[in-house]
Design a protein that fits this description.
126 residues; mainly alpha; 63% helix
C-alpha cells in the first residue's frame, strides 16, 4: 500500500517544463484517397473524346457536301426539263412551219407559179 501512495505522489508532482520539441508526426490511419481514374485512363478517355469529336466534324462536313451536291443535281434536272420542254415546243413549231400547204401559199405570194406539180417534203433523215 505504501508503494501505491508513492506512485500516486510521483504522478501528482508537477513536472518541470521541458523544451518543446516538435512532436513527431503521428501516422494517420486514414486510407489514401484513391482517384477515380488513373492517369492512363484519363489519357485514353481524352484521346477517345477527341476522336469522337473529329469523327462528328467529318460526318457533318460530309453531310453538308452531299446536301449541296443534291441541291445542284436538282437544279440541273429542272434546267434539263426546261430545255426539253423548249425543244418540244420548237419541234412542234418546226412541224407547223414545214406544212406543205403553208409553203405553197408563201411561194405563191412571192410570185412562184406551180403548174401540175406535186410538192413533196424533203426529209433530213437518210
Amino acid at each position: 500500500m505504501a508503494l501505491e501512495q508513492v506512485r500516486s505522489y510521483q504522478v501528482q508532482q508537477p513536472v518541470q517544463p521541458e523544451r518543446k520539441k516538435d512532436p513527431q508526426p503521428k501516422p494517420t490511419s486514414q486510407p489514401a484517397k484513391k482517384p477515380w481514374f488513373t492517369r492512363g485512363e484519363k489519357v485514353l478517355y481524352s484521346i477517345g473524346i477527341v476522336m469522337i469529336a473529329v469523327m462528328a466534324v467529318i460526318v457533318v462536313s460530309f453531310s453538308s457536301s452531299v446536301d449541296s451536291l443534291n441541291r445542284d443535281v436538282q437544279q440541273l434536272n429542272t434546267q434539263v426539263q426546261e430545255v426539253q420542254s423548249q425543244n418540244n415546243s420548237l419541234q412542234a413549231e418546226v412541224q407547223e412551219l414545214s406544212n406543205p400547204n403553208r409553203i405553197l401559199t408563201i411561194a405563191e405570194e412571192n410570185g412562184l407559179n406551180i403548174r401540175h406539180a406535186e410538192v413533196r417534203q424533203a426529209n433530213n433523215t437518210p
